[in-house]
Amino acid sequence: MRLRHPDGTVLHVSYGTNVHPAQDVDGLVDQLRRFAGPVRRRLGADRLGLGLWLPAEATHRLAADPAAVGLLRKALDHEGLEVVTVNAFPYGNFHAPVVKKAVYRPDWTQDARLDYTLDCAQVLTELLPDDVARGSISTLPLGWREPWDADRSRAARDRLDRLAVGLGALEDRTGRTVRVAFEPEPGCLAETSSGLADHLRGVDTDRLGACLDLCHLATEFEDPGEALAALDGAGLPVVKAQVSAALHCEDPGDPASLAALEEFVEARFLHQTRERGAQAVLRRDDLPDALGRVDGAPGLPGEGPWRVHVHVPLHATPRPPLRSTRDVLTDALELLVGGPHPLVEHLETETYTWSVLPAHLRPRDDDGLVAGIAAELDWTREQLVARGMEVL
Description:
alpha/beta, eight-stranded parallel beta barrel, 12 helices
């Protein structure tokens, strides 16, 4: 969807297709017919944006085979879809039975991550609508926090410098601009906005910037205004924002709250959990760790509120006494687009966890997933219209 800010800037709203399993080009084309097209029709939108997840297997073929790109673009046009942003965070099979920390490999110390991202950028230049000035790609915030040392930092910075050079060469060759946005995530080297500002200080900010995932921000108990100030202080533009909400538990010592949290324990994805302590945020790498379900490892004390890295559907309400962090999300949206000029042009709803949510939130079939994604996009559209945006 496209909306116009009062200052005339066009905002692009998409949904992240990493919610759909696909490894090759045929899988990407099939998900457009099976899900994305029906979502657009249910929304009643003339054209719908996709935050297209490009797994490595499909990306390598698309980068090498113009006919494959043509097939994908034809399918997008047929379903009334467009792509201005790509999700290049998950590299491999994001729907394997167990993903967990594998999603952070390869990291930015490895050429495989650089080559994959530049291939994604090339593909995006061929998919961008003719009237769109620039595209964006979201990626991981360098890597998981351990093991990490000075040598790995130097290796990562070398690849970021080569990435900026490669993006510049791509623009010279194609006339299309693509920027790469690094996405702070709990547990990673840069798990907060201020951490990202520290680790990316001095990079080419014409080509590289931040992807602000509002679920991640809330999980870390970040204040949206302070997060944006940290990025601005480092000169990092907000290239992309992921409109998403985390899970909030006000009293993790309450038996009913613990029972509700147990429903979110599952095997595929990592659900980093944070407790707001009196002096600092306390951290565990997964919900079972926080609950004390892992032998030999203490759980979180449960003396303060918890936030859990679960992408909760934007329009849905978790079973009480749990709730989502929609309040943080709406505060952040106000700062991002509610001012005289928007701080970001690419907004992506990214609830990839539909298939592993508790039964009362999980869709039963394809139609249920289509309805859920459309409801999230409708909620986002309403939030933007309420802040003065005009639907185009």
